[in-house]
# Entry
Amino acid sequence: MWKNIQPAPPDSILGLTDEFRKDKNPRKVNLGVGVYKDDTGNTPILRCVKLAETELVEKQASKSYLPISGDPAYAAAVQRLILGEGNEVIGAGRAVTAHAPGGTGALRVGADLIHQFSPQARVWVSSPTWANHNGIFGAAGFGIERYAYYNPESKGLDFEHMMSDLKKIPAGDVVVLHTCCHNPSGVDLSHGQWRQVAALAAQSGWVPFLDFAYQGFGDGVDEDRFAVEQFAAVGVDFFVASSFSKNFGLYNERVGAITVVTPSASEATVAMSHLKTVIRTNYSNPPSHGGLVASTILNSSELQAMWLAELAEMRNRIVGMRKDLVAGLARQGVEGDFSFIEQQRGMFSFSGWSDEVVQWLRKNSSIYVVGGGRINLAGLTTSNIDYVCAAVAEAMKA
Ligand code: LMR
# Structure
């Protein structure tokens, strides 16, 4: 069967982690995959997660199937988290949420659902975007287009060009937007810009699909949902794919959710019926453990407070590493203004390092950076930052 078939290329992000694992250099640094690390280089299990797990293990009396859309308490907690407690959408029953296996699973379920009814629609992603957006929406059968987003010269958002592209998108097409902490650039929209995009969605009739993988890594859990609130307020149909890999550190439990927001409760009920069909034919019903951990935390005021504090600790460490990186590069005499790194949000920064620099770093210093120059700031620690900055200085001269 496989004799005449060429191997598929390795994944641009997870494939890099495979290479990193094989690398025997004791000084190796992984600035590739978006996984949080503490200052010792470890990806910790949050204290609130350990406590919730202990509670779950003690109380759990069965491993029977969850409902197709997952535990209703989980769905309710997710809605409060992404829309904000008391949001009109929740009270009006305009949103339905299903537990999905990670953010990728949520995006794929949403993509399959849309494709079932709008197979002719095109999906618009930011230029650049997370590489897997192309994979997921392509695999669901969509043609993919790009709208302007990042300006490599200003190292910021090209909002004017972005808006002029979004204005040309026809009703019914799907526009994937990064709710906060844009992956890969770290460049986000301001409040005023989000208001304009939401108003345009309402006017144009294209369907926003919000990828919400980093809630809490920008300015905070409440602050980061600003974009979601704007789309909810204008009353359009939209989708939100949540991931709890990063903000709960539940990477390998595959915890996420797909939320479909509609203009009315009756439409939401229809959406949920089809959501269930998509899930049933993909993986039947979700794995329970990670979702139960997240909902145990979100439904306990004590554990939730602990979670928010731990999340703030992760966010603040990354902000600190942004500052240290800019200072470290200057100390090593690397030419150029890198202050943009401090303005970006979330785990990632588009470093502006060329592919030659990225290759050099990997070959000569075992420093792994995603092609295009995206770095995960959480891979930096107080012990490896000087090593990284010195290597960048060398690479720039080479
Ligand atoms: C990333 O962008 O590195 C993360 O979202 C992990 C992944 O699945 O690609």
